Each structure stands twice: as structure tokens, then as C-alpha cells.
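Problem 12. The chain below contains 123 residues. Write out its predicted structure in C-alpha cell notation.
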Amino acid sequence: MRNKTEKGYHKLILWTKLKELLKLGYELIDKLPDSENYGLKPQMKRALISVMSNFVEGYLKTSKKDKARFMEISNTSLQELEAQSEACLILGFWTEQDYELFDSKRGEVGYFMYRYKLSLKSP
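Solution.
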């Protein structure tokens, strides 16, 4: 893959955090039992992809209003992942350590998304 770290959204810390969350999320989702092949697994994967995709789509919009709307969608998917990861812990699919690791990474993404949204409000 070409090095895109100096172009557009690729240069943002938020993008790095999103990639880390995606990788960790997929690794932990693989721990779910086969009984979740049509339940939590695809739902969590869609939410992970939604967080990234909506961030990128918003980043590429020209109006601040459109950017903010896609950031909200991205953030909603991030909150979905919070509930889904708690379900993984409650159901015993993940250990406490798995959950804490994922929740910490999810929190980092949330923080950088919040900071990015704040930057949209500045003149």
C-alpha cells in the first residue's frame, strides 16, 4: 500500500486511532462464538466500518454543517460499539481485560473525534 500519511485525513491522529480501533475490534470479534455469526459479529463489524467511513465522508464534505452531521453519525456508531462491547463482557464472550482494552481504544477515538468536532466550530 502506498504511503498516504501526508495526505488529507491520513495525516490526522484521529485516523491512526480509527485504524487501531478497527484492527483491535476485528481481533476481539474473532473471539466471539460461532453462534454470533449472524448476531454480534456482523453488527459490530458494521459499526466499526461505519465509524471510519462516516468520519471520512464528513472530512471530505465542504460545509461545516455537513461535516458535523457525518461526525455525529460516526459518533453514534462509536456509542453503538460501547453497548455491544458491554454485551460481549456480560455474555462472557470477552474477558474483563479484552473489554477494558477495547473500551480504552474506543475512548481514545471518542476523544479525538470530539476534538475534531470542536475544530469545526472555530472560525
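Discussion. The first helix runs from residue 13 to 29. Students who got a different answer should revisit the alignment rule from Section 12.3.
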